[in-house]
């Protein structure tokens, strides 16, 4: 039996859906399906964020399960490279040297979930 | 995203920030919201080609101004108007609207061919979306000013392509100029961009060529015709990938005249020139209708001969490659300009294994496209219909730019005449844009620390620029 999760890109008027078998999808799998269904590419130049339709809160842990029949909001944003970051820091670049983490969506395409998501450094 | 304070001007790039492609910028001042352009990125397809629309609430936009018909400036407009909560008014010049209609119909068709049955869902919009959005688009004449809800804007000639406009926008006394793509060299059919009579406080300017210098037009024309002549003289074929409309018409004016003047050496019709674009053929009437918006030269030609100077004696239109008898030397202009897929790509794969053939790139090649890749003269290129197969590349590859964007000197001279103390760079890859920023800062370094200090910004997509304006502007606003 086929299950459905509805998602709506934040800038779109109408929702789309992902069909799957089972009682729910992890955030990781749902993001992966959305990227593949919309042919968004290899994930290197954008980030994909999920938000709860009810609370508006971001759901960012890869392992969280989104139950079937629920609705989420999706946001596609540019990949973020800290070293090339804000231009607001007085013309010079934000120099968080040592932190070269690029925030993008490649792992959803390559198929490697972020296992220790919750140990992520607090900003 | 922060809420701008009452005197702060906000610039927010949804696309075209440190990249060429998907031009789209948001301006906010005094509670008014203006959107500039709604393009797609030529190196991507479908949703991936869109500006980052999710990062801004499009429902708040009052007006959207489209600078010109090129896909990187206009092709996501039907999507914005039909698929998002956008409800603002949309303006463009008459010729832009006339060409836009044909162009996007072609774009819908091209992007929904060759994919699986789900393609209807995958294309960004349908023919119906296009028709519905088309009817809602309003037009603006050059040099006329329109006011919407306290936002005044005026259109000026930008050169570049037929219908291209710069917009000077005024909100509560603050003046912002958006150049779009612009050129400062008169060519065979267009005038160069104008400097608006009134100065601007903020200038949003293209930086495609960064600090590079162009050779003069006549040198480039000579190089182009000689290269083509020597290639066909040796029995080779010349492939010129072009965008269907705009710069292609300029190239055809150059080639048609050369073929006319060198008929005998070229074997009196033995070497055909083809333009494989049904779209361009359909748009010839638009070029005829708007001859009055072009330069004096071409208008005189039109008056004297009483015929459309864009109907060429030595160039034949081809609908597709089925009717093409590929027996000897020829010159072929074909779309798309970036060789991503379609006709120009098919010809590239057919002709690139042979040494005597030539691929001649005349447009600006966007990062990530085949046009950009072929310039590196790779030994092989991937076949677009069969990624397992690679095609050997032995043909010659040359690049002579007819892209009609300002070079550094032209850009600098123009920027100086605008007298803006805040310059925001858009429409350029990171490196040339960064070089342009440094060059501008050093050019204006003597003003540093004075009240006329020039600030230059080069924001990435979805990174906002906030500029505080105080005193004078408020007084002016009360005066209004
Ligand atoms: Zn353009
Ligand atoms: Zn452009």
Number of helices of chain B: 15
Distance between the amino and carboxyl termini of chain A? 43 Å
Instruction: Specify the structural class of chain B.
Output: alpha/beta
Low-confidence stretches of chain A: 85-99, 117-123
Helical content class of chain A: 10-25%
Keywords:
heterodimer; A: 123 residues; alpha+beta; 4-stranded mixed beta sheet; two-stranded antiparallel ribbon; 2 helices; 13% helix; globular; B: 480 residues; alpha/beta; 7-stranded mixed beta sheet; 15 helices; 22 strands; 30% helix; 21% strand; binds zinc ion
Describe what this molecule looks like in 3D.
The complex is a heterodimer of chains A (123) and B (480). Chain A has helices at 27-37, 106-110, and strands at residues 2-9, 16-21, 24-26, 46-52, 65-67, 71-78. With 123 residues, chain A is an alpha+beta fold. In chain A, strands 2-1-6-4 form a four-stranded mixed sheet, covered by helices on one side. A two-stranded antiparallel sheet of chain A has the order 3-5. In chain A, strand 1 (2-9) and strand 2 (16-21) form a beta hairpin. Chain A starts with a strand and ends in a 13-residue tail after the last helix. Mean pLDDT of chain A is 81; it is low at 85-99 and 117-123. Chain B has 15 helices and 22 strands. In chain B, the strands form four sheets. Chain B has a seven-stranded mixed sheet. In chain B, strands 7-8-9-10-11-20-21 form a seven-stranded mixed sheet, covered by helices on one side. A six-stranded parallel sheet of chain B has the order 14-13-15-12-16-19, sandwiched between helices. In chain B, strand 9 and strand 10 (174-178) form a beta hairpin. Classes of the chains: A alpha+beta (123), B alpha/beta (480). Chain A binds chain B through residues 9-14, 16, 38-41, 46, 74-78, 84-88, 91, and chain B through 44-48, 52-56, 58, 83-85, 121-122, 455, 457-466. Residues 68, 70, 160, 181 of chain B line the site of one zinc ion.
């Amino acid at each position: 039996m086929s299950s459905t999760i509805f998602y709506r890109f934040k800038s779109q008027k109408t929702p789309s859906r992902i069909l799957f078998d089972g009682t729910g999808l992890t955030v990781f799998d749902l993001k992966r399906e959305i990227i593949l269904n919309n042919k968004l590419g290899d994930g290197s130049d954008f980030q994909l964020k999920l938000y709860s339709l009810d609370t508006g809160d971001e759901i960012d842990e890869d392992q969280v399960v989104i139950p079937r029949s629920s609705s989420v909001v999706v946001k596609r944003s540019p990949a973020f490279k800290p070293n090339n970051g804000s231009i607001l820091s007085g013309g010079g670049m934000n120099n968080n040297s040592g932190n070269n983490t690029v925030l993008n969506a490649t792992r959803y395409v390559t198929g490697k979930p972020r296992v220790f998501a919750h140990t992520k450094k607090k900003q | 995203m922060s809420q701008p304070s009452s005197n702060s001007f906000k610039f927010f790039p949804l696309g075209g920030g440190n990249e060429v492609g998907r031009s789209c910028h948001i301006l906010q001042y005094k509670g008014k919201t203006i959107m500039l352009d709604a393009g797609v990125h030529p190196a991507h397809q479908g949703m991936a080609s869109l500006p980052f629309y999710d990062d801004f609430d499009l429902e708040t936009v009052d007006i959207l101004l489209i600078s010109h018909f090129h896909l990187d400036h206009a092709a996501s407009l039907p999507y914005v108007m039909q698929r998002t909560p956008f409800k603002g008014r949309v303006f463009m010049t008459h010729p832009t609207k006339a060409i836009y209609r044909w162009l996007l119909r072609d774009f819908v068709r091209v992007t929904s061919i060759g994919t699986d049955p789900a393609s209807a869902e995958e294309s960004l919009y349908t023919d119906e979306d296009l028709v519905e959005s088309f009817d809602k688009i309003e037009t603006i004449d050059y040099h006329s000013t329109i006011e919407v809800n306290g936002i005044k804007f005026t259109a000026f000639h930008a050169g570049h392509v037929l219908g291209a406009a710069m917009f000077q926008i005024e909100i509560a006394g603050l003046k912002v100029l958006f150049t779009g793509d612009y050129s400062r060299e008169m060519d065979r059919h267009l005038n160069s961009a104008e400097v608006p009579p009134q100065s601007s406080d903020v200038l949003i300017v293209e930086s495609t060529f960064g600090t590079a210098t162009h050779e003069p037009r006549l040198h480039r024309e000579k190089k182009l015709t000689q290269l083509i002549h020597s290639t066909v003289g040796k029995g080779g074929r010349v492939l010129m990938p072009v965008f269907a409309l705009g710069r292609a018409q300029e190239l055809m004016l150059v080639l048609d005249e050369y073929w006319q003047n060198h008929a005998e050496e070229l074997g009196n019709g033995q070497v055909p020139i083809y333009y494989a674009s049904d779209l361009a053929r359909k748009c010839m009437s638009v070029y005829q209708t708007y001859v009055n918006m072009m330069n004096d030269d071409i208008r005189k030609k039109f008056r004297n001969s009483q015929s459309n100077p864009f109907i060429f004696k030595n160039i034949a239109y081809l609908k597709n490659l089925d009717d093409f008898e590929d027996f000897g030397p020829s010159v072929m202009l074909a779309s798309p300009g970036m060789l991503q897929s379609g006709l120009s790509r098919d010809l590239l794969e057919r002709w690139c294994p042979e040494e005597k053939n030539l691929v001649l790139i005349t447009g600006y090649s966007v990062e990530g496209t085949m046009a950009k890749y072929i310039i590196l003269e790779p030994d092989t290129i991937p076949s677009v219909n069969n990624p397992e197969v690679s095609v050997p590349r032995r043909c010659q590859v040359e690049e002579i730019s007819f892209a009609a964007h300002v070079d550094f000197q032209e850009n600098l001279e123009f920027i100086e005449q605008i007298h803006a103390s805040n310059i925001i760079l858009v429409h350029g890859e990171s490196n040339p844009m960064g070089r342009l920023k440094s060059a501008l800062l050093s050019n204006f370094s003597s003003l540093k620390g004075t009240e006329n200090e020039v600030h230059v910004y080069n924001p990435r997509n979805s990174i906002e620029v906030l500029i505080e304006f105080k005193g004078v502007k408020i007084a002016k606003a009360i005066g209004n």
